[in-house]
UniProtKB/TrEMBL annotation:
Binding site for Zn(2+): E118, H181, H201
Superkingdom as given in the UniProt entry: Bacteria
Cofactor note (record): Binds 1 divalent metal cation per subunit.
Native species: Palleronia sediminis
Protein name: N-acetylglucosamine-6-phosphate deacetylase
Length: 361
């Protein structure tokens, strides 16, 4: 396959042609400082995704398959299937579904890179929209889960890991540690960042930022190298996104999508809870934000709308998340990388998604 346009490479824009098999075979053309449509970008890499297309990933393999098909139609070419805090049997069923889809990938869907376990080792006083199944760390349990399916990220509250045993286990298992759903103080968060942890949905469901009594959010701005943020302009306002962008070198975007992503307004599920999509947001009956309705092509347009150059917005939705988990084969357009592309017109409307050299219908 050959596609012509303005190609965003790790070295900048090139006007020319990209040649594809299952991987990128060649990129031809001259460098340009004035890219013109079509814009050929790396496919999006979403490291926090609970569902879409009406499907909640906690509901099993077929729901996960439906969700990855939905997100592929919005430019996402790889993602981390994300759990909610749940009883062990439900987490195990979720991991079995992740393993099944990784073993037999969905032909028209985003590639599943592994699981992001959001909980259950979080602070019960900062659940956000998480179901009430938070508990203390269990090292044997996380080892058993990691043996069941590939776990690439775990969100936990550092204040309930006082001796650091959970972080030690995550390091040993090759799982990226992210702090979130936490009421930790600045010192506790700073210690986690010093050990290489990231932050989950920055500013949301965490102790905040203040000129006194600073918590996880403030520590992230001062000390984090890596953090995810939800650029739906509902979870975090534009000014806060720009402040985080200035402070955190490797700030990257995630959707935190739930079943309502890619769907009309209505009632859906999140880990057994009823959530409602209205006015672009997903909420519990009490009004609490419950994940999002965001899809990645909208995230791209949102970041550009608040002032990020297109190349930077793309990098924060593709290259940086891939780098965080060490996935050097995706999130960038260079010879030898996977042929995962998202192609946009001059208004930044998605034209085509290509995954592994195959066009998504």
């Amino acid at each position: 396959m050959k596609i012509e346009g303005s190609i965003l490479t790790p070295d900048g824009w090139r006007a020319g042609e990209i040649h594809l098999g299952a991987t990128i075979e060649a990129i031809e053309g001259a460098p340009t400082d004035a890219p013109r449509a079509p814009h050929i970008l790396p496919g999006f890499v979403d490291l926090h995704n609970h569902g879409g297309g009406g499907a909640d990933m906690m509901e099993g393999e077929q729901a996960l398959r439906r969700a990855v098909r939905t997100h592929a139609r919005h430019g996402t070419t790889a993602l981390a299937a994300t759990s909610v805090t749940a009883p062990d049997a439900q987490t195990e069923a979720f991991l079995d579904a992740v393993a099944a889809v990784m073993q037999r990938p969905e032909p028209q869907g985003a590639r599943v890179l592994g699981a992001h376990l959001e909980g259950p080792f979080i602070n019960p006083g900062k659940l956000g929209a998480q179901p009430p199944h938070a508990r203390d760390p269990d090292i044997a349990q996380i080892e058993a889960w990691a043996a069941r399916a590939r776990v690439i990220i775990m969100t936990f509250a550092p204040e309930i890991d006082a001796d650091g045993a959970l972080m030690d286990a995550l390091d040993r298992l090759g799982i990226k540690a992210q702090m979130g759903h936490s009421l930790c103080d600045h010192a506790c968060a700073r210690a986690g960042f010093a050990r290489g942890a990231g932050a989950t949905h920055l500013f949301n469901a965490m102790s905040g930022i203040s000129h006194r009594g600073n918590g996880l959010a403030g520590a992230a701005l001062a000390h984090a190298d890596w953090a995810e943020i939800i650029p739906d302009l509902i979870h975090v306002e534009a000014g806060a996104i720009l402040a985080a962008r200035r402070a955190i070198p490797n700030l990257y975007g995630v959707t935190d999508a739930t079943a309502g992503a890619g769907m009309p307004d209505g009632t859906y599920h999140l880990g057994g809870q009823t959530v409602t999509r209205a006015q672009g947001a997903m909420r519990l009956p009490d009004g609490t934000l419950a994940g999002s309705a965001l899809v990645m092509d909208r995230a791209l347009r949102n970041l550009v709308s608040i002032g990020l150059p297109l190349a930077e917005a793309s990098r924060r939705l593709s290259t940086l998340p891939a780098d965080w988990i060490g996935a050097a084969d995706c999130g960038r357009l260079r010879p030898g990388a996977r042929a995962d592309l998202a192609i946009f017109d001059g208004e930044l409307a998605l034209i085509r998604t290509v995954i592994g050299g195959a066009e998504i219908g």
